[in-house]
Design a protein that fits this description.
The protein is 65% helix and 12% strand. By secondary structure, the chain is α+β, with helices and mostly antiparallel strands. The protein has 2 domains: 1-54, no CATH class; 55-136. A two-stranded parallel ribbon has the order 1-2. Helix 3 (56-68) packs antiparallel against helix 4 (73-93), helix 3 packs parallel to helix 5 (97-124) and helix 4 (73-93) runs antiparallel to helix 5.
Length: 141
Amino acid sequence: MEASSREKRNHNTLVMKFGGTSVGSTEAIGQVVQISRDALATWPRVVVIVSAMSGVTDRLLQSATQAAAGDSQTYNQAAQELRIRHHMIAETLISDLAQQFQVKQEINYLITDFINLCQAIFVLGEATDRRWTQSQPWVNV
């Protein structure tokens, strides 16, 4: 592909990144959805990058740290809170019940991965940075 063609194609793509408080509540996520839909009206391609909701990354890291210190209650409580929070958002923003079920199922898989990782950290009594980032892709985002 010629450089000019590649440049032209890249200029036809809008990339937007949202994270933290801009995806911290159902209302905020709804705004991100609307901003993304509005962008589709004027851009041929739109890429939306979304990082963790406000407070989620800190909660995940705190849970792993506490698991390494021998505390299993913190990560189990965090898992329950995160599941409820994400399920509520899915229920509010996704009207199609089949699609809502799929999203909630994916949330459950991710929460199960988180619990399994914290259980391993709890047993090992350590949470090295390398193990954490290699095992959980959402930490690298």
